Structure formats: structure tokens, C-alpha cells
Amino acid sequence: MAKIYHHERQLERDLQHLKQRKVLYRLLSTVGLCVTILIVWQYQLLVLILVAVAIVGLYIISQCSLSKQLGKVTAGLEGEDRALEVLRNLPATYSIFPDIQIVVDGRTSQLDTIVVGPTGIFVVEVKNHAGVITGHTNEQQLLQIKHDGYKKTIYNPVKQVATHTYRLHRYLYQHGVDFWIQGTVYFANGAAKIDVANHSSTPIFSVNENGSKRLLYYIEERQSRTLAKSEQRTVEKLIKHIVKKQASN
After folding, report:
1. Edge-to-edge strands, sheet with 131-136
2. CB-facing half-sphere around the CA of 247: CA atoms within 13 A
3. What does the mean pLDDT of the chain come to?
4. Mean of pLDDT values over 199-210
5. pLDDT of 223 higher than 90
6. Where does residue 84 rank: exposed (0-12), middle (13-18), buried (19+ CB within 10 A)?
7. How far apart are CA 241 and CA 245, in angstroms?
8. How far is 200 from 131, CA to CA, in rounded Å?
């Protein structure tokens, strides 16, 4: 099995932060409401009754907003976890680095997963969207149609991973390493149907279409640029440096 370099991911930090905010808002709202009710009970002022109603309203709005954000972050983590479960089935000659943040030329990229092995370097962009995803890889946005008929646009993950691979290449190049980096997109949600016209060099895989096995096969069998063991170690060392830097922040 492949080696996964686990560390605290950005989405895990975001989830913890949102949970703390939810508890804090609940505490502040409860204290504020109790104080207001106590004053209203003693003085029976209409303005304070309105204040109490406003506090309840703000509390409900804040909790709804935080619950929505929590749901989004949780879904993102679930998708990344599913992708890692798939990628760990690569041979032991491969290394997997989840959630790598790269800053190059003053710009930041958050890479879901980097895979380094004898067949090259891969960046896997993971999406956990449900419903029908339709569009064309040349477009900036794709259309998501959920099962209840709700429609929304999402940023094209093919273009997203193209930016990530460019920045990873720039980072490695600035450290004396110049290798081709292959981007891929993996839809990890079994409730997704992918109907995207793909004329790019970036393959799209979906768990719903035997994409897990196809993704592994693609990585293992790609022979356009192989890495020697020494080259692989050099790349892994540079990425480990990023992981160490992230952990210290």
C-alpha cells in the first residue's frame, strides 16, 4: 500500500473553528437573552422585548449560516477521505500527500492530494458534489443540477487543477527540479453523475463510473515520464518541507 503523509488538513482546522464559533455564538446569545428577559421581567419595557426578539432572530440566522458552512466543510472532508482510501491502494512505491498549501510568486494554491511515484507526479483535485455535473472543460464554470432540481454553477475543477499543477511545478522548478506534473479530477460522491465534455489533457474520474479503479490504473500505467528513485526522493523531500512548514504555522 502507498504511504500517506498525514497531517492536520485545512478543512479539519476550518471544521474545528466553525464548531468553536457555533458554541460561542450560542453562549453569547443565551447570556444576552437571559439578561434581557430578566430586565424585561423587572421593568416591562417594550423596547427590551424587541431587543429580546432581535437576539433570538440573530441567533437563529447565525446558527443557520454556521450549519450551512459546517455541512460544506464536512462534505469536503468526506470527499478527501474517500479519495485517500482509494489512493492508498497504490503500490508501496508511491507516496501520497493530502492537503498541501503552496505559495508561489505571492499566490496560494490549496492542493487536495499530491501523488509521487515511479510513474511521475500527480495532483488529484477531489470533488464531493452530488447530482448531475454538466458542461465543457473549456468553460470557466460547470453546471450542477441537484436531485431536487436546484441548479448552481461551480468553478471548473479542470481549470482549478491546472492552476495547482502550474504552481507546484513552479515551486519545484525554483528548487532545481523540473518534471512534468499531471493533473486529474476525481468526483468522490456516489450520488454524482458526470456529463462533462472533456477535450483537455486532464482526465476526469467518477466513483460512480468505476472511476476509482480507473484512477489507480491511470496513475500506475502512465509511462510518459518516469521518475528514478533518486528523483522521487528529491520531490518527496521538497513536499515534506511544505508539510513541515504548514505544521509549524
Report:
1. 151-155, 141-145, 131-136, 192-197
2. 11
3. 84
4. 88
5. no
6. buried
7. 6
8. 23
Residue 80's contacts (CB-CB under 8 Å, 6 or more residues apart) are 9, 11, 98, 99, 112, 113, 126, 128, 188
Over the stretch 16-40, which tens digit does the pLDDT of each residue have? Answer: 776 777 777 677 667 666 766 666 6
The pTM (predicted TM-score) of the whole model is 0.78
Residue 1 in contact with residue 92, Cβ under 8 Å? yes
Residue the block writes with cell 483537455 = 200
Q: Are the C-beta atoms of residues 219 and 115 closer than 8 Å to each other?
A: yes
Query: Cell triple for residue 45?
Result: 419595557
Task: For residue 4, give Cα distances in angstroms to 13, 56, 87, 93, 201.
Answer: 19, 46, 9, 11, 26
Q: Strands 107-117, 151-155: parallel, antiparallel or unpaired by DSSP?
A: unpaired
